[in-house]
């Protein structure tokens, strides 16, 4: 409950269930009553850090830690100024370097480290990518284009369903109107009584309903499958996926005991005679009994030379 306590008046959510904590750009929170008292003229210093704050910049604290609200606000402002996308760079490495610099700016602004230098570096980056920022401001990203296509296809599908339902309803109304006209003609021209004509009409109508129920196959429309476009990998990005067969680091075996054979040589040396055969299900999962047997030998031979005189 400590985070639900105003640091100035010490009012807590326990004593005041209607307590509302607000936070500003400095990351320090105050209750709504303290905000109204300290900033009744529109602006004033923060009681904790003495930074001049504006009353209209206070917002309801969302996270338990007020620093998180501060970081979210700073990150939103920085990304509104530096909003380049991956397609604006020649390679994935260049885009990752750009993101790393942006994250460095956000960290410095949140922690208060070298604020002036960070702002100068941000201005220099905006000058460097000025043309790209101007183009990206009005250009849609691949994700936005994909989402718009998805929404458009969904709208077209809904329109088709609505049109099909409207046509079915219209056909049903026309059919009922024709049946009504036929019934009136029968009542006017037939020599039978009205009760007999109505009974015969209901009987025929019932037979038609049964035939339609069991013989009419509803139209099944194939479900639209929307595939996401594959990622675009440039020649510079492909270098990141190349495999390096060189051994990065070797493992030094210092058992201080007799050497243990490799997994391929254990069976030839007779170490696997008492080991059960690996079931097919375990082989399918990539397991073989050779590995635990070799581990047992490593544990048994480890440190045997420590007792040698």
Automatic annotation (TrEMBL):
InterPro entries reported for this sequence: MAT1/Tfb3, MAT1_CAK-anch, MAT1_centre, Znf_RING, Znf_RING/FYVE/PHD, Znf_RING_CS
Superkingdom, taxonomy of origin: Eukaryota
Location of this chain's protein in the cell: Nucleus
Main location: nucleus
Gene3D superfamilies: Zinc/RING finger domain, C3HC4 (zinc finger)
One MF term in the entry's GO annotations: cyclin-dependent protein serine/threonine kinase activator activity
Domain (RING-type): residue spans on this chain: 6-50
Annotated protein name in UniProt: CDK-activating kinase assembly factor MAT1
Species this chain originates from: Hypsibius exemplaris (Freshwater tardigrade)
